[in-house]
Amino acid sequence: MRSLLLVLCIHASFTLYSQDDKRTPESTEIWEPQPRIVTPGTDPNTPPSDAIVLFDGTNLNQWVSEKGGPTQWPVANNSVTVKPDAGAIKTKQEFGDMQLHIEWRTPPVKDQSKVSQQRGNSGIFLQERYEVQVLDNYQNKTYANGQAGSIYKQHIPLVNACKAPEQWQTYDIIYTAPRFNTEGRMIIPAYVTIFHNGVVVQNHTALNGPTEYRGLPVYKAHGKAPLLLQDHGNEVSYRNIWVREL
Predict the structure, then answer these.
(1) Comparing C-alpha atoms, which of 235, 229, 98, 213 is closest to residue 145?
(2) 3-state helix, strand, coil in the chain (%, to 5)
(3) Are β-strands 75-76 and 79-81 bridged in parallel, bridged antiparallel, or unpaired?
């Protein structure tokens, strides 16, 4: 009986809608509010007008050392390069939801005995906690949830889109920060979509929690936090880093 009543109600609603001669195309138009205007860059890699430029190739004024004080990574040729053992660097500004553009390059392979995680290893930590792996995976096999384009130790990239060492590569990342209730419990996980060299490698992927080298991740409540670039002992270079807050 309940199923029959449901069918009758749906049929009545459809009949009413189809007989509504007063409905016009304008009745479903939304005019306000209008989206704000953003001027695009000259190409997909160029910052749009509302971007926060974190590194334009000239200085690291927007960054500090994770250890405290000024950064020690050298800036040259419009890029910044990891100084091994100097420690990670992080932005002075804190972020939540964001669109991130960042370009990176792994160094040449000088020692063929260096394989897997020993080649071009670095990482981009969203909100200091959630690592998007940077690694030379051009003809260099490693564990799948630790290769370039992975959410480190959590999610395998959909494909391997790596270029050869010494070539510039791009990440375009859409990140939604996790939400917590007043008791500090996670109610909505963080989500990330990643384009690696224009190829989707993470598609609205739910993060399991902060990056852990050992053990399983567990969310802990937090607010906005910096973007962090990892020092993993390899001379990985970065350039053209900008963010749009969402």
Answers:
(1) 213
(2) 10, 30, 60
(3) antiparallel
* C-alpha span between 36 and 21 (Å, rounded): 35
Domain 29-245 has CATH 3.40.50.360: no
Sheet strand arrangement including 130-134: 63-65, 89-91, 228-229, 122-126, 130-134
Contact 190, 177 (CB under 8 A): yes
The two structure tokens encoding residue 127: 């909100």
Q: Are 169 and 197 in contact (CB under 8 A)?
A: yes
Cα gap 59→78, rounded to integer Å: 9
Coil, strand, or helix at residue 26? helix
Q: What is the DSSP letter of 5?
A: H
**Confidence (pTM):** 0.90
Q: Which amino acid is at 16?
A: L
CB–CB of 117/236 below 8 Å?
no
Distances (CA, A) of 177 to 105, 123, 194, 205, 238: 27, 18, 14, 12, 23
Per-residue pLDDT of the chain (246 residues; tens, 9 = 90+): 455 444 444 454 444 445 555 789 989 999 999 999 999 999 989 999 999 999 999 999 999 999 988 999 999 999 999 999 999 999 999 999 999 999 999 999 999 999 999 999 999 999 999 999 999 999 999 999 999 999 999 999 999 999 999 999 999 999 999 999 999 999 999 999 999 999 999 999 999 999 999 999 999 999 999 999 999 999 999 999 999 999
Which secondary-structure segment (H or E) carries 203? strand 199-206
